Records
---
Amino acid sequence: MAYENTDGGAGAGSCGEPGTSDSLRTFGAVVQALREHAGLSREEFAGLVRFSKHTVASVEQGRRMPDRDFVERAEAATGSTGALRRAAPHLSRQAGLASWFRQWARLETRAVTLWTYECRVVPGLLQTERYARAVTESVPPVKDEEQVAEQVAARLERQQLFERRPAIAFSFIIEQALVERGTGGPDVTRELLDSLLARSLRFNVELQIMPRHQPDHAGFDGTLMLLEAPDNKWFGYAEGQRGGMLISDPKEVSIMLQRYARLRSQALTSEDSRGLLKQLRGAL
């Protein structure tokens, strides 16, 4: 299949409705069932676990990853059956990632190579917490604090990929305009530039900036991501306003690989990219 609509992130950028996961939905349903079996209203239960009624609702609806305190207090409030304590380690944090991005996010965890070209927003794997928050708050629909925190946490959690062993070979190409835009204000931009410079020095990360003046540009069709799996099979991913596509057909992936290779040759070298980032940092 050439294209699979992964209906079901904005992992790289900012668009997207946060999704949930099967494990979170199942855990939430069990919490609700145990609460109701104990004869507790949601408000009464919230008082016992010392979390807000809204947080309890989010957990029961599978929209929020419960922390350890919630699990332990919920156990005590529902008769200490052990069900919640045993289930908690098997939860996967997919909440906060767009539903169509989750399939790609799962592939990322096993990737050998991961390449990203971005022309809209600094890739999620390179975002700082404050930058991620500014991006998340900027894009409609309006989100409450819990939704913002959930999406930012999910995006930052993906950055654990940098610590994975065996190491992933990362390549990022980002447009110069993305770091000049000033998203979040000068302080957020300074922090972002410092973070990008630090990331670019890692042994397994290549970061290139596409300069503003580049008439011959292979990225006019938009953002693209490429991934090499452990069996050396390559996959592509493309994302739009309200959806994304996992691309597995070898011919289509080959086209994306050709485009990425061209983009690499058109962007500044890693050394020159660091020089530009330092220049932009000094100008703030």
---
Amino acid sequence: MLRAAGAAAGAVGIGTAVTPAPAVAAGAYAHPGLLHTRADLGRMAAKVRAGAAPQTAGFARLTANRHARSDWTANPQATVVRGGTGQNYGILYNDIHAAYQNALRGHVSEDGAHLDTAVAILNAWSARLTALAGNADRFLAAGLYGYQMANAAELVRDHPDFALGRFQEMLSTVFAPLSDSFLVRHNDAVVTNYWPNWDLAAMCCVLATGIFCDDKAQVGRAVEYFKHGAGLGSIRNAIPVVRDDGLAEWLEAGRDQGHALLGVGLMGTFCEMAWNQGLDLYGHDDSRFLKGAQYVAKWAMGGEVPFTANTREKGAVNGWSGSETVTEAAPVDPAMTRPIWAMIANHYTGRRGLPATYLTRIAAKSAPEGGGGDYGPNSGGYDQLGFGTLTFTRDRVAGVGAGVDGSGGPSAAGAGGSAMPSTAGSAARPQAGATASPSPSLSASASAGDLAATGSNDVLGWTAATGITALAGGLLLLRRRERVRVRGESQ
């Protein structure tokens, strides 16, 4: 199991003036209600019509993307393979992003041709796709593409030509079962074998498909796992250490920058979809996600951050076993980016009125955010739907952000990186952990039988929005350090 030490979180209240719509409490799911609500779509369209900044710059990135063209033609497959031989999953993620981008463009521009294209793409896939295959990476395919397909379809679910029932059946039989299985069995590996982003992808799929299919039990499982799951994707395992300065250490910062950004983006996606159904997971556990996202934002911009050494057990159940210790945060390239920051920053600063210095800075640096196809040709550039500058930029809500003591909320200090008082003291305490899986780029330790060696490494080759490659841009990458000790790689 993961062994890590963490300082107790400070008992600081958060602003409560803004709450999510109580859709779940009322016993029904709101549609559209995944990453974007009907009100969100109306806001985007109004801002673009008015020529408002920065939404118009965000819309320009959307219309410039080749996936957003109304002449896109789907290429559905009966079986999609990710991992091993015969891989064809690039076909799927390109079509998903074309469906999402056309649906989004159609709503903002009120051009029905783009909505028709999105429907045609999604209908083609639901008419043909029957299976996901491959090695352990098939679970990544289920998680990432399941939540994305649900989001694209949610934008056109009321279109008269959309085959809603058939699409729900595809999500329920092809995508959700693999993600549900992963959260329960972890591919028959020990529970800490896979890093947080594996769990988080599966969690996003289970939540998104549950909402899309109006499956309350499925949504309940996803939310419970976020709060208390055994794997490394649950919030206290992904963010095991909360410090007195108001920042919280992100576990996967000990792996590499690309996968840490992936995890933060996925947790933000999970929280946003839950928020739109009346569940405030952004604020869960004294806004623990805010503190973790602030930590990653500071680190990703080249700032020095602490990192508490942790050891995770890995291997197969009743098979080979080993362990790995990570002692410090990985080097970073400040030019590397993902389209994840506008969503998170706008929740905490826009909806909640909380200061969040690092999030604000990195969101501004990454703007205007693009989407799939704008961040390199490999799968890592398609892990988020993107376009957050357009979709999530909102006016700050007046009169929110004060904590229960009127101090301005938990991030009045922590979000800005200055000292934040804690009533819990500064002594470190151990905290139970859960799942994991490192990439071969961490060390030469990944043996042929190491389940942790699976997963895409193309994040290391992404291009930043500036066109500077991740491996060429940052002087910080020149800091070569021995960070990992590995024992018992195989039987």
---
Amino acid sequence: MNNYKKNSLTLSGAISLGTGVMIGAGIFALLGQVAELAGEFFPYAFLVGAIISGFSAYAYIKMSNAYPSAGGIAMYLKNAYGPGTITASGSLLMAFSMVIGESLVARTFGTYTLQLFDISEKSVWVPILGVLLLIVAFLVNISGNKVIGRSSLVMAIIKIGGLAIFAIGGLWAAGFSIDEALPTNVSGNYNATSYIAALAFTILAYKGFTTITNSGGEIINPNKNVGRAIMISLFICTLVYLLVALAVSANLTIPEIIAAKDFSLAEASKPTFGQYGLWFTVAIAIVATISGVIASIFAVSRMTAMLTEAQLIPHKHFGMPGSLQKHMLVYIVVIAITLTAFFDLSRIASLGAIFYLTMDIILQWGVLKNLRKEINANVPIIIAAISFDLIVLGAFIWIKVSSDLFVVLITGVIMLLIFAGEKWFLQNSQTQKNIKQS
């Protein structure tokens, strides 16, 4: 880990990292969650989520051009707010949302893998397989940057190609009739709030583009290639998500998707391709989830290591040998394993969505207030990004308060602990510094 170097990631490698995280979690883990809130309109939710993510990505691209860094979002927050509580807390929110994403993908890996056997998706084997994936991803990450870049590129090609085959096959089975895939009427108990709330999950599905900013210090010609990688990754994933959502919509009813929401793609492959289709879809899911976890752990370890080196978060090595980055890998994987073992997919996804949207609002506001002139940002675009985030986050929390108050409460408690803990830590660190200097 301590051998990461400048110019060690190509443009294609950066794109594979972004798509690796997005496709690893997005379509396999979240399609059913989106359908549960948006009903027949869930394919549109992925398209609208992409548009909102594009508005948010604008600020990241402008900042990556000005401040390319291995710290990525943490460095952007530092430039916007200085080395204080907001920077540290916002960075930790992003880091936790990424760790939560790893747990989401890990459980998805377990759920899809069990579709090959006559075992319930509620089996204890789901978290066990998820934990095993996290351990393997940890071992891959300590092997170094080149291994990660090569494996991510190969896996990205395999899973994008596989999902394209799945989508085209599903639409072909429906006679390539878009009319059968797109909704013609609305059924079920859905309203404007639930439709907007569904966008929180689709935005979460696209947030993998931020992984690219966390690797800015390693990407060749980062001032240009970070922005290019973000735009290309978003375009690829939007196309893949939309095609897959249409294919699933053409082969399953909304009640069927919701009933199999944790493994909806595997279920959708059965009417068209039978048992062979199931095996094929599960194989692609396994490749996608493995690459997603590897890419995410890579990015968040860099980010948290930078925060530690900047003395923005506390660190104890607990007698562990090796570099700081290896220590951060251990902490990240331990937290992800805990979440994987004790939380289901819906709650993990909800935690991740709230954390990410909150962090994005903090970052966009910092750009609007303090950096808009320095990075020559278009103010209306930044205001639009903040407005979209606030509307989606508000609708999502409103829905969750009525359906799963526990996840809202635990998210609020964790956020409070992050901000209060960071404030105490930074004040205590400054006090210790002043004592040493006096």
---
Amino acid sequence: MPDGVSEILRFVEGWGRRAYPVRWSLRDAITYAVAAGADAHNGRALVWESAPGFGTLATFATRFAHGALLDFAAGTQDAGLPSFARSNRVRVHRPLPADCDDAVASATLGVAAHTGGRLVLRLGVGTTAGGEPIADSSLDVHFRLPGTRGAQRPPSPARDGGEDDGGWTVEARETVRPYQAAVFRTLLGPTAGGRMRDAMHIDPAESRRLGLPAPALPGEVTLGIVARLAVQNSALLGAGELRGAEVAYLRPVSDADRLVIGFAPAGGGTVRTRAVNGDGRVALRGELHFHPDSARWGTP
């Protein structure tokens, strides 16, 4: 009988390139912003369609991989290997419209790493409309292999927040509201019905079994919170519009968690960021990429 690793590798080999229709509405864009904690007080331009400068968070482009993620989950869940997302990258080529009904996402799947105790798959998605690029994103998914600790990396003081890497130009504090993960699940559709194993994001009992005080936020929600706060503080950071992000998810964030999020310009429109959870652990670390000035930007 074939083992789970062999089944997954055969699935990857047979993936090829898959295309998915992508449609989103004003309601979807606002729902994503609300899930990321935006409201009339701290993100009116993201949730109030009549507000001057109403826009869509660039990290909403992570949603364009939704159809591919469904197929990915369906093809790997029976292999019996626990998996988790570790890193996420997204880049938008132009400001995202509030709605779109004719985009196409093209998805590829490959092996990013495969050693004796480590298997990492990379799902890459490029989205276009009218033949013009809209956004690119990729997600690394780590599988925990039998007889090993799998993709878990050994802790280090810097990674877990015991060592302050400092230099934060802006620090923002945010309390995660219990409704945020629930709101986000309205975007997930069938994924919350069992096609993806997301019990840790839904079921309090399963969350406690995994050592979490409450259901964990999906990584996209944590990234959305960071993006929203970065946009709010873009003037202090000397940055223009948000164009993308490259982040690693290191520790879970749960409902009612209290986050401390730091931002530090690194030149050329790049802003370093990290989010520390209520346990003092670094939950997310990476870089945000902005247009280097405050002018509206077009397609590069």
